[in-house]
Amino acid sequence: MTEATNVFDLRTLNNDEQQKLKKVIQEGAKEYLELQDRKEGLRDLIKEVADTLNEGIEDKALKIKPSLINAMIRVQVKSDLEQKKTKVAEIEDGLTSVGLS
Predict the structure, then answer these.
(1) Could you give the 3-state DSSP secondary structure of residue 56?
(2) For the whole model, what pTM was predicted?
(3) Consecutive sets of 10 residues in the chain, 101 residues long: mean pLDDT of each?
(4) Sign of the CA dihedral 71, 73, 64, 46?
(5) In degrees rounded to 5, what are phi and psi of residue 65?
(6) Which of 13, 36, 52, 101 could be cross-linked to 95 through a Cys-Cys bond (beta carbons 3.0 to 4.6 Å apart)?
(7) Could you tell me how far CA 87 lies from the centroid of its own chain?
């Protein structure tokens, strides 16, 4: 087994490569932070909606948990994805049937 090496000990980046790497790291960090903020906001919104829907409900079995709302969102996203895949397959079949694929 080979020992792990540090790529930057083995390679020197030229100025253009350094700038490209710096830019993608800075933009990636910004996007990552924005995504984290959006996830946090969605999490807060889901909890707020669950709390509102559960006001006055004493029976735990009747309460809607945030995890259930999250699961419903994931199923909806997956369903949309499957519908898009079906539509793309239909388009591909159509193009193939007229000799354009």
Answers:
(1) coil
(2) 0.67
(3) 81 95 97 98 98 97 96 91 88 90 74
(4) positive
(5) -85, 150
(6) 101
(7) 22
